[in-house]
From TrEMBL:
<dbReference type="Pfam" id="PF01730">
    <property type="entry name" value="UreF"/>
</dbReference>
<comment type="subunit">
    <text>UreD, UreF and UreG form a complex that acts as a GTP-hydrolysis-dependent molecular chaperone, activating the urease apoprotein by helping to assemble the nickel containing metallocenter of UreC. The UreE protein probably delivers the nickel.</text>
</comment>
<dbReference type="InterPro" id="IPR038277">
    <property type="entry name" value="UreF_sf"/>
</dbReference>
<comment type="function">
    <text>Required for maturation of urease via the functional incorporation of the urease nickel metallocenter.</text>
</comment>
<protein>
    <recommendedName>
        <fullName>Urease accessory protein UreF</fullName>
    </recommendedName>
</protein>
<keyword id="KW-0963">Cytoplasm</keyword>
<comment type="similarity">
    <text>Belongs to the UreF family.</text>
</comment>
<dbReference type="InterPro" id="IPR002639">
    <property type="entry name" value="UreF"/>
</dbReference>
<keyword id="KW-0143">Chaperone</keyword>
<keyword id="KW-0996">Nickel insertion</keyword>
Length: 233
């Protein structure tokens, strides 16, 4: 391999990493900060009142939610984009929509997906129309960007889980309220769990998929009629 070719390899990896960082940045203008995924309701109901309880809540959602649903779906969706498999994209996008147990959770996925798609259009990076499911959800569009940027699947999952974790802690800082130092303590506590859950998600078979989050579904449903709230879910 020539020196020029060898020099190009790290450059491609670096560009993929920067593309992933751009995708998971809180500055990405898609409005992810407006959603709490039931966490605000858990505060209101008194289910989560302390730092330790917040860590347990986030850990549980990470393992029984993202680890069984969004993360393994990202693997399948990214592969489907890479293979140009429109049928698989439509199937998994529809499967994911069917797992959203409340109106707010469904609305979040649809709105974030639409916002990310609008952003991609403005950057001339939108997915091929022939492959794209109708009104694709956020996870499906996220998988397209990861594929388009050349991000390896494991890093795609880590980036998605990291962005989710940061958003949950940002919600807690605003609504619990949680101090920023406490948020960093929880980040240190949960970083190894992110890596562990990603490894499990990469190995999950189709028959093992599906979230197991009755508490979150109840909190999300309660949030729909919560009197005072900062977040849309």
């Amino acid at each position: 391999m020539s020196t020029d070719a060898m020099a190009g390899l790290p450059a491609q990896e670096d560009l993929a990493l920067l593309g992933l960082l751009q995708l998971v940045s809180p500055a990405l203008p898609i409005g992810a900060f407006a959603w709490s995924q039931g966490l605000e309701s858990a505060f209101e109901l008194g289910w989560v009142t302390r730092e330790q309880e917040l860590g347990e809540w986030i850990d549980g959602v990470l393992e029984d939610g993202l680890g069984r649903c969004e993360l393994p779906l990202l693997v399948r969706l990214q592969q489907a984009w890479a293979e140009g498999d429109a049928a698989a994209l439509d199937e998994w996008d529809g499967w994911l929509k069917a797992t959203r147990e409340t109106a707010e959770l469904s609305d979040e996925d649809a709105r974030l997906g639409a916002a990310l798609l609008r952003l991609l259009r403005s950057l001339e990076l939108e997915p091929p129309v022939a492959l794209m499911p109708q009104a694709p959800g956020y996870v499906t569009v996220f998988a397209w960007v990861a594929h388009q940027r050349g991000v390896p699947p494991r890093q795609t999952l880590i980036g998605f889980a990291w962005a989710w974790l940061e958003n949950q802690l940002a919600v807690a800082c605003k609504a619990m309220p949680l101090g920023h130092t406490a948020a960093q303590r929880l980040t240190e506590q949960l970083r190894p769990r992110v890596v562990e859950i990603v490894a499990q998600a990469l190995e999950r078979l189709d028959g093992e998929l599906g979230p197991i989050l009755p508490g979150l579904a109840l909190a999300s449903a309660q949030h729909e009629t919560q009197y005072s709230r900062l977040f849309r879910s």
